[in-house]
Design goal:
alpha/beta, Rossmann fold, seven-stranded mixed sheet, five-stranded mixed sheet
Length: 359
């Protein structure tokens, strides 16, 4: 991948982010269950000598006088571990601190820490935290305990992101929530956490299937200067022939692209929101201006209607579209009590209906 400068996958982009920060003298800390190898056996940041049982972290041996990465495999005690990592982020703001859930759903065990400290600490105590939460998310038929990191909960905790983009005084959020689709964007999101002159918690709605998806790759050039994190990713399709504009986030994008190719639906464009909060008002307004012949706007998501990002993005899209007579239509699973169904057949039927609704 590195030699060819192409098809950099998720885990490699993460290793490049860690390694580049270490070489620049910054420290990195990552904790959670199985973080050394990664829950989905994708990371392998630490190797174990089977004869001596000694753990070896190659990233700590790039060059002399570099920063250090600390890898802390922890038990499923999310409340305690996340609380510790939040405190670490306050004590050492120049270390990139990361807590990774084995599945995003498991963060609910630490909801007290999220509500009382991570989302409110700056307002209550004027203490900034750069803690990163990696929350594997995505609907692939694994059932209600292994599908949703509850994006809606984090977005409900985001303040200072006004529905009205002209309300400049209320555009400073307390947290960042991203749902990236490219390894390059993930790479830049991690680096900017430590390179900024301020600290904000970062919620990464992370991948499962995208970890190994052949489409979810980036060229090495997308990680080199002067490239940076892209809150919105445009479609490459000719905008003149588009009358159906679909907004989406996350891995569903790749399924939508495959369906467009199958249907030969060149009238449909996909606009990816890589960053949900702070909401990219200006960038989305620029996207809307590209599609002069649009007849329908749709928000498409995997999650049920009472979950996911819909209730967060809907009023903001209405603000953007107030000069346009076209409404934005919801496409996704119907409202539900559980975050996902428990039968693979039901999951496939729902997924097919979501894809069909997009077109």
């Amino acid at each position: 991948m590195i030699s060819a400068g192409d098809k950099i996958d998720w885990a490699t982009a993460e290793a490049l982010a860690f390694g580049s920060l270490l070489v620049e003298g910054h420290n990195v800390r990552i904790s959670g269950q199985d973080v050394g190898r990664g829950t989905f056996s994708q990371r392998h940041v630490r190797f174990t000598d089977q004869k001596t049982d000694e753990g070896v972290v190659p990233l700590n041996h790039i060059r002399p006088k570099q920063g250090k990465i600390r890898v802390a495999d922890s038990p499923l005690s999310e409340l305690a571990v996340m609380g510790y990592e939040y405190g670490y982020s306050l004590e050492d703001p120049n270390t990139l601190p990361i807590w990774e859930a084995q599945f995003g759903d498991f963060s609910n065990g630490a909801q007290i820490v999220i509500d009382q400290f991570i989302s409110t600490g700056e307002d209550k105590w004027w203490r900034q935290s750069g803690l990163v939460l990696l929350l594997p998310h995505g609907y692939d038929g694994a059932g209600p305990e292994h599908s949703s990191c509850r994006i809606e909960r984090y977005l409900q905790l985001c303040k200072g992101d006004s529905f009205n983009p002209s309300d400049v005084d209320n555009q400073i959020p307390n947290m960042q929530v991203i749902y990236p689709t490219t390894p390059a964007n993930y790479f830049h999101a991690l680096r900017r956490q430590i390179k900024r002159t301020f600290r904000k918690p970062l919620i990464v709605v992370g991948p499962k299937t995208m970890l190994r998806a052949s489409e979810a790759v980036s060229p090495l050039s997308a990680m080199a200067s002067p490239s940076s994190f892209q809150p919105v990713l445009s479609d490459t399709i000719d905008p003149a022939g588009v009358d159906n504009v679909v907004f989406c986030s996350g891995k569903l994008y790749y399924d939508l692209v495959k369906e467009r190719e199958r249907l030969n639906a060149s009238n449909t464009a996909f606009v990816r929101l890589e960053e949900l909060c702070p909401f990219p008002h200006t960038l989305l307004a620029n996207e809307l201006s590209r599609y002069k012949n649009a007849k329908t706007y749709k928000w498409v998501q995997e999650e049920p209607q009472n979950m996911g990002a819909w209730t967060f993005v809907m009023p903001r899209f209405l603000s953007l579209l107030n000069a346009n007579t076209l409404p934005i239509k919801y496409v996704g699973r119907p409202a539900a009590s559980a975050s996902a169904v428990g039968f693979s057949g039901d999951h496939k039927n729902q997924h097919a209906a979501v894809l069909a609704g997009a077109f």
